Amino acid sequence: xxxxxxxxxxxxxxxxxxxxxxxxxxxxxxxxxxxxxxxxxxxxxxxxxxxxxxxxxxxxxxxxxxxxxxxxxxxxxxxxxxxxxxxxxxxxxxxxxxxxxxxxxxxxxxxxxxxxxxxxxxxxxxxxxxxxxxxxxxxxxxxxxxxxxxxxxxxxxxxxxxxxxxxxxxxxxxxxxxxxxxxxxxxxxxxxxxxxxxxxxxxxxxxxxxxxxxxxxxxxxxxxxxxxxxxxxxxxxxxxxxxxxxxxxxxxxxxxxxxxxxxxxxxxxxxxxxxxxxxxxxxxxxxxxxxxxxxxxxxxxxxxxxxxxxxxxxxxxxxxxxxxxxxxxxxxxxxxxxxxxxxxxxxxxxxxxxxxxxxxxxxxxxxxxxxxxxxxxxxxxxxxxxxxxxxxxxxxxxxxxxxxxxxxxxxxxxxxxxxxxxxxxxxxxxxxxxxxxxxxxxxxxxxxxxx
Length: 451
Prior knowledge:
By secondary structure, this protein is mostly beta strands. It is built from no helices and 34 strands.
């Protein structure tokens, strides 16, 4: 409802690509479409919409789009190289707490990253040609002694902890190295300062060197963990925040004949080990794992674990056919004593090397690693990792545990395989949520905990 409001579209370096004036549309929910011409490089990149209205008038935006191209589309990006991959420190895809400045390094000018204190970080998107162990070099400077940082993968696992030497001045640089083991393919690596003293250090660039030493082949036995709350149907149960390692929800309030159905896809007929993560204060509680015809595949006794949130893992052997099927966990305790379950797991004991798949709505099969959120729990923003063979529009919904949609996003997935999207979650109330991704008939879900 204001006049003269402006915003800019900027690239990751902060350069303005276009300045746009928002017309006075007459009401906050009366929308118009305005346009601008921008020049963009090829490839994955971050674009920022930033309000540049000193009067603080305010404006709304419903969607935006990048339409067509005025030139011949560029060729697809080259495959990952086996040579040295140098990454400028300022070429992060996301960051927290740092600043950049003009570098005085003789081994490559431009910018360096500085003002790095404890828990400050930068994320970098890299494409690794082959899985294996690599030498990673870091071009660093500091006047402090004992400053450390870690190189972490997308799940938060530290791949290397590196100590920055005292180089004598902030713009006197040295190159230090570490050995890290990396998987093949597109991935995000994070450099995070782990210096509780807050001493600070600078980095100009880092590089992944040469050809990897191949890792040993993976074991052929595979398994999938199924969260108890990921049922397709249920009767009589409730969920609650779990006290078990890993967090999330558990299923409780289970009495005689209460049940949950789960849709799974078994790669090959055979005998499997099924593990159940359970807790109860009662003795002698039992449940059954049944197939869709109601036949009991296993009867399991839940041990008295001493408390409702003190969990143990119990196992059973079951024989399963190949293919898509529904398995039911049903309580068979006539006394109505009750028990909790946090997750269960089907372990493939054959040598097929195939992973068991968990089906989502519509029968679409999703590998357990196909969708992931991190960090989890989240306080402000999180990464959504989607790994499938599709490209195009991803429709993303964040729903609470009642199924009510709290947030919606639309993101273009530009290439098949793995991609990561940085999404806001600061406006969500603390609690548990389900992140759901839909694209071209493919559906994936993941659990998100908001602190």
